[in-house]
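pinging the channel bc i need a second pair of eyes. not urgent but kinda urgent?? the chain im working w is below, pasted from the shared doc
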Amino acid sequence: MRIEHIAVYVRDLEVARAFFEKYFRAESGAMYHNPRTGFRSYFLSFEGGARLELMSRPEVTDGRADPFGCGYAHIAISLGSTEAVNELTDRLRADGYKIISEPRTTGDGYYESSVADSEGNIIELTI
């Protein structure tokens, strides 16, 4: 058994898609659009086979009011090395993204940093 994909609602579908393409080399499939409901989505594929579905519809609201609220907390993306984590963290900072936590080794032995994407979703950068 394996997780087939993870899905996340976003307000700006094109900006979210561009973020993952630019910084994580995601490859986007064609947009799906249901004209009856206004639902739109892209499936993004990553090296190694992971997939992320970005979804939007007119009624999407900001559901991230409490960073410790119940539900999904972050998406972790393995970059392969401490240098890659440091470099991408610096690049995202320079491009104006909010760094949630600086690169560090955590108490459980992970080397990681965390950044908020354009929607405020937390992306964990790890080895």
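so The domain at 1-58 is CATH 3.10.180.10 (2,3-Dihydroxybiphenyl 1,2-Dioxygenase; domain 1). and Residues 30 and 112 are 32 Å apart (CA to CA). — does that match what u expected or am i reading it wrong
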